[in-house]
Design a protein that fits this description.
Length: 717
């Protein structure tokens, strides 16, 4: 297993590895300020013996960028100088056994890297180290450095490393933290072949169950090959070094036309035809690299040995996000799948996940889990990592998490807590300890072995790691730190406070009128607390922050969420209900928490099926309410969620029965496919005098996988 990437040439490898794990982080107790850099007049950037054009280019790059950061132009020179300076020697050496090397001798600092990517990262590591000691050089915008300068050498753990998050996609930062620039790395990415094919996609539709089916593509089609070939030639040329993903659409069926079937395709296996196409493309473009995916219809490993410019991107979608020791059955199965791909290719990239895609704004403590997974990936031959995050949309703690993850991609053995601390210490001088204590607690909560949900609501987060009492304390204290902080720190804290207002509102909505809720109960009436409106007001400030427009993968707008909150929560049409706090029973049977949700006086929101709604599988259900002694007349009220894209359907009919006798029927006409979730309300005048049990029989159209989303059941006198 990969252990430490840094070691001193003067130490035995084992001892060096032990020392380096402890001494990597700039600003940690092990790296006391040496004040070495201010001891000379400045910095001379130069090249070594027998320089190449690449050496010269990179030396000039360092010179220019170091000079831009200097408060005096004269302290940075190129080539020669008569001043007493540190001499920084730049060299690209493709034969270097390790990926990079820093050698210090006298006043010489020699930076050597095997490729451009590691040289760029190494130069900014040096700039940061210099700026920490020399106030003449400004490195305040750079993340904490990982290297020490005492004869250090090492290599990146993975050849390709990308983080799909706002900070990881920022072209000004990716190279600085050792990441590949995602936007420049791929000629075709993911399930994007249709964008390449355009209007010609219809020429290559798959044959499924004997019929042409536009949900999938045919990979044995000559038209498919010719269109991809033309796209590569026209946009990337034949001599470049780009990566292309050739993958079926995100559906469970493969093409079974005569040609695909002859190649070996089956109804659920597209690997044979996809592999044949990729092999053909790899021969046509030997300078480019082509990947298939290990996902859905291409999970089956090919039986062909793949050439050096062909690989696989292995999706971890079925590998739970939780603490692992590599010993349980899921770990073993996952490792076995990786090992099987390793038999046919050395180019194994991992597509892993670092966010809850239904909630970008609630913290998601993935770092220690990711570290364990990276160690496992490396052990089983992975050469590249793609961390799928929130894309260009804001997610809480993104900058810190991206910094830590980028460091772990370089060396998965680095101490996570120290990385977190180094980032907070630098970026949050006022609130560093408070932030560190809370966030590391979240990380430790997630280490309990509980699975993190990739598509989860606030209730799952609460069960897993987000303990309400501690979160609320943290959130309530945030205003004081925002007021105390200044400049960049204040802006970042204000941004985080705004994002976490969403989390506070979700917790409050889920808890209704209990200690963590948004309201207080007064008999059969609930009234929103004054602070609930403050949370909404705070969340409205999201418009001031770049990227904070959506709160999930489905591009649900935060403004839309706020509108729903104001309409259905703060201005609810069921503020008073005689059913409030009642405990209904149901067929199929409901758990206690779901039963309470039906009569807690709090609406679910149409944009979120996770929270507030009781999801019941099947086309029929019956709910019984004990109304003996109620003796009142008024309006019966029940609301449903209509969200066909998640197979949640509003009913066609609601029938009321009093003590088992049919009483009233309500017919509904839900839309087949509303753009977003839709709340449908069923109301009818009712007289419950003398009634002991009110039964509600709910019926949907029969469709495969039908679920019902039921919310508040109320009786308004």
């Amino acid at each position: 297993m990969h252990r430490s990437i840094f070691h001193s040439d003067k130490l035995c490898p084992l001892l060096a590895g032990m020392i380096c794990v402890c001494c990597l982080l700039s600003g940690c107790r092990m790296q006391a300020r040496t004040e070495m850099f201010p001891s000379k007049e400045g910095y001379l950037v130069t090249i070594g013996e027998d320089p190449t054009d690449r050496d010269t280019r990179w030396a000039k790059y360092l010179y220019e960028h170091l000079k831009k950061r200097a408060n005096d132009d004269e302290i940075v020179a190129f080539g020669v100088s008569e001043m007493d300076m540190w001499r920084i020697i730049i060299q690209i050496d493709p034969t270097l056994q390790r990926g990079f090397k820093v050698a210090c001798k006298g006043s010489d600092i020699r930076l050597t890297a095997s490729d451009d990517k590691q040289m760029l990262w190494l130069q900014y590591q040096l700039i940061k180290k210099i700026s920490k000691e020399d106030p003449r050089i400004d490195g305040s915008d750079l993340p904490p450095a990982l290297i020490n300068l005492n004869d250090t050498c090492g290599a990146f753990a993975f050849d390709y490393q990308s983080i799909y998050s706002p900070y990881g996609l920022n072209a000004d930062h990716t190279g600085v933290i050792g990441l590949n620039n995602f936007d420049d790395s791929w000629g075709i990415w993911g399930h994007n072949l249709r964008k390449v094919l355009g209007k010609d996609a219809e020429k290559v539709y798959a044959t499924i169950h004997g019929k042409t089916d536009d949900s999938q593509l045919c990979f044995s089609s000559e038209d498919m090959y010719r269109q991809i070939e033309s796209y590569i030639v026209d946009n990337f040329g034949e001599k470049g070094n780009f990566r292309f993903v050739i993958a079926p659409d995100d559906t469970p069926y493969a093409c079974t036309c005569a040609t695909c079937t002859a190649l070996g395709n089956t109804e659920k296996n597209a690997t044979p035809a996809v592999t044949e196409l990729i092999l053909r493309l790899s021969q046509r473009f030997p300078k480019h690299t082509f990947f298939t995916t290990s996902y859905l219809t291409t999970q089956q490993v090919t039986d062909k040995q793949l050439p050096p410019n062909v690989g696989v991107i292995f999706s971890t979608i079925d590998y739970p996000l939780r603490r692992t020791d590599g010993k349980d059955e899921q770990d073993k199965k996952f490792a076995e799948q990786l090992d099987n791909w390793k038999k046919v290719t050395n180019n194994i990239y991992i597509w892993d996940y670092i966010n809850n895609f239904d909630d970008y704004l609630t913290p998601f403590p993935i770092l220690k889990i990711a570290q364990q997974r990276l160690q496992l990936f490396k052990q089983h031959g992975a050469s590249g990592i793609f961390f799928n995050g929130s894309g260009y949309s804001y997610s809480s703690f993104d900058e810190m998490r991206t910094f830590v993850l980028s460091a772990l991609l370089i060396n998965p053995e680095l101490p996570v807590d120290e990385l977190i601390k180094s980032y907070f210490n630098q970026e949050y001088p006022v609130s560093k300890k408070w932030l560190y204590d809370y966030y590391t607690e979240l990380e430790n909560n997630a280490q309990s072995g509980k699975r993190l949900g990739l598509y989860a609501g606030i209730r799952e987060s609460e069960k897993g790691f987000l303990y309400p009492e501690k979160f609320i304390k943290f959130y309530d204290e945030m205003g004081d730190f925002v007021s105390e902080a200044k400049g960049k720190e204040r802006k970042k804290l204000h941004e985080l406070q705004t994002a976490l207002s969403f989390t506070r509102m979700e917790l409050a909505r889920d808890h209704s009128f209990d200690a963590y809720g948004y309201a207080k109960r007064n008999g059969k009436d609930i009234q929103p607390l004054p602070q609930a409106r403050k949370w909404v007001t705070q969340l409205k400030e999201h418009q001031a922050f770049a990227g904070m427009g959506y709160y999930n993968e489905s591009a649900y707008e935060i403004d839309y969420y706020i509108k729903e909150w104001e309409q259905y929560i703060l201005a609810s049409d069921i503020k008073k209900s005689l059913f409030l706090g009642m405990h209904p029973s149901a067929t199929p049977k409901l758990n206690k928490n779901d039963s309470k949700k039906l009569t807690d006086g709090t609406h679910g929101l149409p944009g979120d099926y996770h929270c507030g709604w009781v999801i019941i599988p099947g086309e029929e259900c019956t709910i019984n309410l004990p109304v003996k002694g109620l003796n009142a007349s008024g309006t019966f009220y029940i609301s449903f969620l209509n969200l066909p894209r998640h197979r949640i359907y509003a009913p066609q009919q609601v029938q009321l029965l009093k003590d088992g006798v049919a009483y009233k029927t309500i017919d509904l006409k839900p839309e087949d496919s509303p753009e977003k979730g839709e709340m449908m309300k069923a109301t009818v005048p009712a007289d419950l005098n003398g009634t002991e049990q009110l039964s509600i029989k709910i019926s949907c159209l029969k469709k495969p996988g039908t679920q019902m989303g039921i919310d508040e059941i109320a009786f308004i006198p």
